Task: structure prediction
Amino acid sequence: MKKYAGIIVRCDNKVLLCKRNSETTLPGFWSCPAGSVEEGENTKDGAVREFTEETNLPVIEDIVFAAIIKRYNRDGSKEKGTFYCYLMDVNEEIYPDLENAPDGDEHTEFGYFGKDELPQPMTKQFNKLINIILKWTN
Result:
């Protein structure tokens, strides 16, 4: 079963989301910087690596485990993998440098969004997770 991992950045009850390009998994969908966990890598290290590769930003704060999301085929028939999501709270917004990130081309745009301004499309499970995270207190 394939493992994926990513980090959601939260600042002032808004989250950093990136729009995936047309050549990636979930093209055109909004998500956090994330990707496949490599063999022999734990999910937290995979989340940190993917975040850095896709944003050219260091992980500047401790990250905490937020949730597991099971990924299924579009028809819901078969589990395709598991997404491990981590949360990083920051005191001021940090912005990806997509131009200089090794995998920055995986995203076409990014922004910080509050609960009432979440961009679409997002997967149902990820949208639900973001709404839960935005209810948590810093």
